[in-house]
Amino acid sequence: THFGYRDVPVAEKQKLVGEVFSSVAGKYDLMNDAMSLGIHRLWKRFFVATSQVRKGDRVLDLAGGTGDIAALLKERVGETGELVLGDINGDMLRVGRDRMTDRGNVRGFEYVQCNAEALPFPDASFDLVTMAFGLRNVTDKDAALREIARVLKPGGQARVLEFSEVQAEWFKPIYDFHSFKVLPKLGSLFAGDADSYQYLAESIRKHPPQAELKAMMEAAGLARCSFRNMSAGIVAIHTGYKV
Ligand code: SAM
User: Fold this and answer.
1) Residues 6 or more apart in contact with residue 26 via CB below 8 angstroms
2) Among 43, 75, 85, 175, which residue has the least CB neighbours within 10 Å?
3) Which residues, by range, are in coiled-coil regions (predicted)?
């Protein structure tokens, strides 16, 4: 139904996701600004500002990439807090670490290359797990959600910020045009890579919509799950708790 829509076989997906993010790692932030007209910064600020996080917390930012969320979280956990950036892609993690070091953020940070589907952390080891614009790239999302629930301490919070289903009918054709016509052009212009951005647009359309993701979180063992739309559902924040 969407122009340019095609299926990516599951087996190829992991490899493709790796290549996408390696090819864009250096220009990732510039592209985010260009694609969202800078609005992704507001979404991220709101996401962190409304998270359950206290001074001294130990937080995992999954699919942490270039570290936008982690940098905002650091302000909240303070000197005594600990932030672990987990990402499957070494290039993204390296850009994130360099950026963090440039901002003077060194102490209290850890960088772990890991797959969200099989986390290398013991049970009940984090007060908060955040995942921003990462879940839709994960092949087995149910496994990732189960892992998030597993590594959370009782009372801990899971928070997912992700593209979701646009709610306003009149906006859908404009959004599709932006995603499938403008976005790949911006991709080739800025990053010399239209395919990666074509893939990103498709991954957004395939991601489970609001209610479905909420049900998946419940099935993964998280309690009191809820979601909240931002920008008419272009993105949504999903929240759940470990009991
Ligand atoms: N959270 C950052 C932000 O909001 O700017 C980065 C988001 S970026 C769109 C998606 C990230 O997810 C990439 O860095 C990618 O390497 C990572 N990723 C994709 N699949 C993953 C997986 N299975 N496990 C962990 N990270 C993954």
Assistant:
1) 95
2) 75
3) none
- Ligand 1 probe mutation, 137, 183, 202, 235, most atoms within 8 A of CB: 137
116 assigned ligand-binding residue: yes
Q: What is the pLDDT along the chain (243 residues), one digit of tens a residue?
A: 333 334 445 556 666 666 666 766 667 677 777 778 889 999 999 999 999 999 999 999 999 998 999 999 999 999 999 999 999 999 999 999 998 898 888 889 999 999 999 999 999 999 999 999 999 999 999 999 999 999 999 999 999 999 999 999 999 999 999 888 888 888 888 777 788 788 888 989 999 999 999 999 999 999 999 999 999 999 999 999 999
Look at residue 159 and give its three-state secondary structure: strand
| Exposure string for 154-192, b = 16+ CB within 10 A, e = fewer | eebbbbbbbbbbbeeeeeeeebbebbbeebbebbeebbe
Kindly report the CATH number assigned to the domain that includes residue 195. 3.40.50.150
Residue 5 lies in a domain: no
Domain count, the chain: 1
Give the range of the structural domain holding residue 53, as residue numbers without chain letter.
Answer: 10-241
Residues facing residue 101 across a β-bridge: none
The crossing angle, in degrees rounded to 10, of helices 39-49 and 28-36 is: 100
Q: Which atom in ligand 1 lies closest to the alpha carbon of residue 161?
A: 4
Residue nearest to atom 7 of ligand 1 (CA): 133
Q: Is 118 helix (H, G, I), strand (E, B) or coil?
A: coil
